[in-house]
Amino acid sequence: MTNTSQNINLSYGYLTWLNGKSGYRIPGSQLNFSGSVTPNAPTDMFAAIGKNGQYINVVPSKNIVLIRMGDSPDQSLVPFLYQDDLWAVFKEAIN
Question: Which residue in 24, 26, 34, 55 could disulfide with 11, CB within 3.0 to 4.6 Å?
């Protein structure tokens, strides 16, 4: 779960998304993006990111498990930007 599963998408593990990698590819796209999938989250975070904005984020260095259930905040199938927005707010509380 915490290691890259293949070379096409370095930020994808075994059914989890890995933060802190050099790049990522979002589902349904052939484009590679530079940087972490969730820049506002700690680099050791790994996440199960489900359809409609359901998340399970695990941060071993902070002993945190962050879970979000509910409807998607936008029309994207997997709202990566929304997850980063959540971490922008949440990181203020954990620092």
Answer: 24
The amino acid at residue 66 is L
Question: What are the residues whose beta carbons fall under 8 Å from the beta carbon of 83, sequence distance 6 or more?
Answer: 38, 41, 47, 49, 53, 55, 57
pTM of this structure: 0.87
CA angle in degrees (0–180, nearest 5) for 49-25-36: 75
Average pLDDT over the chain, rounded to an integer: 88
Low-confidence ranges of the chain (pLDDT < 50): none
Distance CA 94, CA 69 (A): 20
Q: Contact at 8 Å (CB) between 37 and 18? A: yes
